[in-house]
Automatic annotation (TrEMBL):
Alphabetical list of InterPro entries matching this protein: P-loop_NTPase, Sulfotransferase_dom
Organism the protein comes from: Podarcis muralis
Keyword Cytoplasm: yes
Entries under SUPFAM superfamilies matching the protein: P-loop containing nucleoside triphosphate hydrolases (SSF52540)
Family membership: Belongs to the sulfotransferase 1 family.
Record key words, sorted: Cytoplasm, Transferase
Gene that encodes the chain: LOC114582243
Gene3D superfamilies: P-loop containing nucleotide triphosphate hydrolases (3.40.50.300)
Name of the protein in its database record: Sulfotransferase
Domain Sulfotransferase: 46-297
Pfam families: Sulfotransfer_1
Any one Gene Ontology cellular component term annotated for this protein: cytoplasm
Subcellular location(s) of the protein: Cytoplasm
GO function term, MF aspect, one: sulfotransferase activity
Main location: cytoplasm
Length: 304
């Protein structure tokens, strides 16, 4: 697919950080505003598979797993294109040299694998109408917020973060791009009882990738031999993906991301938060998350 001739008013020589803007009660980069109607009007097809996550929860990891499953463990087929060309990010507005995620998806033959960070209540209605399968990955708040903080710095277009403590407070209050982490993980958790949603946890994937990848294979309605499963585990582990230019975002223009500030494939662990949180911040987040997730049945592990 040719992504080089797209429209979009983003000038890659003049990267500009987004500001936050509220759309339907949730904060997003202001660049989504103009594009919002197009996103909401997205035409899902019945055989679309949507990967949905809160940002920095393990999206790229599950994308590469799904891609490897789709290609029956054939890394060469996976590696024909960077991950963002294989799986359109439907929330993305047009940004030169890229067309919007919606336009990219519209041009794509079925079966499509799509990516979104939208909270459940803002998912385009056609996904529900078409009964599309969704794979959701959730990550514990502590590692998620640390990863998001670093991403804001390596990205040249995400909003300013303020200090680490300010960012942490904003994250918990939902005053960051794509809104509240707790509303997101909770909303999708509840949706899984009404829709075909496979809900996975980053920590489980880290603990036993083969077990979690088996769930993905089954959810996609496939059967693959153990040897292929082992191949998928091998090629989707952190070290493999970090070294894989088709999975590590190193092919994105440097006008958008700067891997020297912080690589996209940064640590890939459970528990890196311990290097960033004070004891007081950790206790405060534990208490706040307990309240925010109360009664949901959702439990997150912050170490494995
Ligand atoms: S994005 O921009 O929202 O799509 O980012 P996302 O891919 O969700 O999150 C990036 C974090 O996921 C880590 N990652 C992995 N961890 C373990 N194994 C594999 N294979 C893997 N691939 C990506 C990546 O390192 C980011 O987490 P941090 O904690 O920052 O390292």
């Amino acid at each position: 697919m040719d992504l080089k001739s797209g429209p979009g008013d983003f000038d890659p020589t003049q990267p500009k950080r987004a500001t936050l803007e509220e759309i339907e009660g949730v904060l997003f980069p202001n660049t989504l505003r103009e594009h919002w109607g197009t996103i909401q009007g997205f035409k899902a097809r019945p055989d679309d598979l949507l990967i949905c996550t809160y940002p920095k929860a393990g999206t790229t990891w599950i994308q590469q797993i799904v891609s490897m499953v789709q290609h029956r463990g054939d890394l060469e087929k996976c590696n024909q294109k960077p991950i963002y060309e294989r799986m359109p990010f439907i929330d993305m507005p047009p940004m030169k040299p890229f067309v919007s995620g919606v336009e990219q998806a519209d041009l794509m033959p079925s079966p499509r694998i799509l990516k979104s960070h939208l909270p459940v209540q803002l998912l385009p209605a056609s996904f529900w109408e078409q009964k599309c399968k969704v794979i959701y990955v959730a990550r514990n708040a502590k590692d998620n917020v640390v990863s998001y903080f670093y991403f804001h710095h390596m990205s040249k277009i995400m909003p300013e973060t303020g200090t680490w403590n300010e960012f942490l407070e904003n994250f918990v209050a939902g005053k960051v791009a794509w809104g509240s982490w707790s509303d997101h993980v909770r909303g999708w958790w509840e949706a899984k009882d009404r829709h075909p949603v496979l809900y996975l946890f980053y920590e489980d994937m880290k603990e036993d990738p083969a077990r979690e990848i088996r769930k993905v294979i089954q959810f996609m309605g496939l059967e693959l031999p153990e040897s292929v499963l082992n191949q998928i585990v091998e090629h989707t582990k952190f070290e493999s993906m970090k070294a894989n230019p088709m999975a590590n975002y190193s092919t994105l223009p440097s006008s958008l991301v700067d891997h020297t500030v912080s690589p996209f494939m940064r640590k890939g662990t459970v528990g890196n938060w311990k290097k960033h949180f004070t004891v007081a911040q950790s206790e405060w987040l534990d208490d706040t998350c307990a309240q925010l997730l109360k009664g949901s049945g959702l439990n997150f592990r912050t170490e494995i």
